[in-house]
């Protein structure tokens, strides 16, 4: 058994995941998702490929408590290699771009995990990238344990990419091992992250660290405190990019089960905004990314429903390190509710009907 | 090693302030109490919850000190208006007077793993080491049981119990959170020995719209803990305070408050600190004057689920336990829920079970109730009685007068002074609701069934009472003579003439020897108070009476004071002599742990045994270990609590056996 696992937690996660995946098996078909976005200096192409799926999630430990990306992976099915290749050819070879390309390949698992992404597929993808000639940076994701196991594959990749920069996203989530174990069921530790980070830096690979807001069983305030500490730790260890990811609730996960019973709520956008703001000051030289998934929706980070769009814009501004308005309470009255919730142990008592708190209208003074 | 150190600290109690919870007054399940925690606090009150932030930002701050010495991180937080993340919120002036409870960051936050659940004891002493000696409550387990551990609920309680057992004498310093799970009632059996200071009903507010769950949640926990454990309901809006106090919740907080408003409830429109304090103040004064039930009704009327809850409480919870045998001077019944008030139910029950008309009674006259109480002091009843006296002359000694009323049902003339017959008040419009009619019909039927066949019935009632009386008698095949319905007022001259006619024509009564009707009256009261048949034992034929019903009667037998009838409450007070007479036939007996008593009170911890039938303000007989009568007194708490309560006032002594007598 993995020594970084809480059997009570992982058992429950495994059960939930198993139930959901068996129910899903008949209807699922693996999808390829891609998008192109543009900024001042380059295009970013993001492609999500349905590989076999994260080995951690498919293991008997059940995977992470908040992650349901396994639902979109191929799992037992054959990986649609042909379709993936066609899509890539369409995107990076046949299309002509006016600016250089940054290619992000996400496989919702570990890119350097042999069982997840077969050697052949990875090699094919690298061939296509080399053929393209427009790409200046490749961005992939990998769990720290597979970075340490797959050193050979990484070195091989670096060699083949030659001029193209490699960026690897690592899920740090929290710098507190107890949280990783008892809330996340992450299966890795801070130490593994640090070792892999040092190794990648020695190979001149850029490291992007994912930092998660609001693990299950945590209240808003604790989640915020933990995220601040994690950002500070990640910065100290020398990560190149910090990506702040508020929770979004995915099917077939423990968080979804808690959410269904109204015992868990995704974080407020106010929390996210404050964190980006603090991260900017803690890590003035590091790039901060924050692009909340499903923001403003019931299952993503949201506020009262009226100010979601405005606060999202503020978050975008904060990421660009632009100046923010001083008094948030003028933006929306729900800011006061947020302040109260941050100041009281509401969620510590596991009071249900948490969603109601967000919707309560404040008294006008 | 650490464990040892802390255990030593626990036992050397030198610095630990005396910290206890005492009950002063009890009503329903609610209690007015005192917490001694450094200083004394009167409950119900607010709990001052404080989140303790261990200095867990030191690492973050350290990163800054290299670059800018001027406390960089503090500045960042200050700029974002987030200082509360760094330090505990400064204690506000107003909340400093409430008992304090400290909440810890969860174990994971402290970097401790839950995986080793069985070794939680090792986390615990280190965390709470410095706090055991302070004047504050401590949240025992700094994390709450996530749902996934639910299958391990038993484990949770066992762990809680184990932690509490480490702290031995100081268990009352801890607050334990018991989250609500409908499937959990089995686990509650485990917590029978749970001896914490405060039990926090964490999920209470989520069950507000489901009174059934709320009640089962509260009562299942209540039944498993000693009465000196306080209950805390976090995050409750102020309009729920009264009904929750009635259910025995002692501690509330402000967390729901401030800028939220909940919509419909008229009593919550201004959701402010002052409001919250005001409600608590009201509850305290209501408890002091025995009027909590009235306050509960007022608040319950403002919100439908609360009203549902109140009705369910009346049905499901044995409120009789916590209801005083006599209370404040008045009892107001203003709506439907009041017709099932414990006082009303008790009166109806006792009349049904303990009242029996005397064997000499040959006729019964049914009379309507009056606004002025006791009835016999009202003008209408004085007229009625003079008519009866002038018509029947000495035959009236074998006639009983029964008053028909709502919500008490059937009130015998002899019990008209007895609480609550002389104290209740209802809104009168002349129209009776179907519930009132049903209650009266029920009581009347039960009463008439017990009457001998030979007793003749005469009714001087009109309207609804007449309707009910004729209906019931028809069902029971009894003959009742009632005046015609066309009467305008029962006190009018024509009507009283009809009454005389009715009495002379329809009552066929044999002359009996003259009786002392005051003795009959006192015996009826004694039966009502101590149980059927006690009256005859308690009041023998040869007693001497001094005084009058309206002012109080002193009863002497063979030159010794036996007891006093108090007109204000309508009950008898016992002396030692009287106690000797009824010791064998009453259940109001309290067993004292010891030989003899000094002083004027007995504390609950010295009570070894007490009958569960004892109610607040009941006259009790105190016996010692050798079953000898040592005193008589008044019970301050219901019988069950007299045994269970480990401290506080139990019985107030009325008379003691003289040592050398």
Residue-averaged pLDDT of chain A: 87
Largest sheet of chain A: 8 strands, mixed
Number of helices of chain A: 14
Number of strands of chain B: 29
**Helix amount of chain B:** 25-40%
Strand content of chain B: 15-25%
Q: Which strand order does the major sheet of chain B show?
A: 5-6-7-8-9-10
The largest beta-sheet of chain A arranges its strands as 1-2-3-4-5-6-7-8
The first-to-last residue Cα distance of chain B is 61 Å
Which CATH class of the largest domain in chain B is shown?
Answer: Alpha Beta
Q: How many β-strand runs of chain A?
A: 9
Ordered list of secondary-structure elements with their pairings:
The complex is a heterodimer of chains A (365) and B (661).
Chain A: H1 7-25, E1 33-38, E2 43-48, H2 55-58, H3 81-94, E3 101-106, H4 119-132, E4 135-141, H5 144-149, H6 151-161, E5 165-173, H7 177-184, H8 190-202, E6 206-213, H9 220-237, E7 241-246, H10 254-260, H11 269-282, E8 287-289, H12 308-319, H13 334-343, H14 354-359, E9 361-362
Parallel strand pairs in A: 2-3, 3-4, 4-5, 5-6, 6-7, 7-8
Antiparallel strand pairs in A: 1-2
Helix pairs in contact in A: 3-4, 4-6, 9-11, 11-12
Chain B: H1 2-11, E1 20-27, E2 30-37, E3 39-43, E4 45-46, E5 48-51, H2 58-65, H3 72-79, E6 100-103, H4 120-128, E7 137-139, H5 153-166, E8 174-177, H6 185-188, E9 198-200, H7 211-222, E10 230-232, H8 241-246, E11 251-252, E12 260-261, H9 273-288, H10 292-300, H11 304-316, E13 331-332, H12 342-354, E14 363-368, H13 379-392, E15 399-405, E16 409-412, E17 424-425, H14 434-450, E18 456-459, H15 463-475, E19 480-482, H16 493-506, H17 517-530, H18 534-538, E20 544-548, E21 552-557, E22 560-566, E23 571-574, H19 576-582, E24 589-592, E25 601-603, E26 607-610, E27 619-623, E28 629-635, H20 639-644, E29 649-656
Helix pairs in contact in B: 1-4, 7-11, 9-10, 10-11, 13-16, 14-15
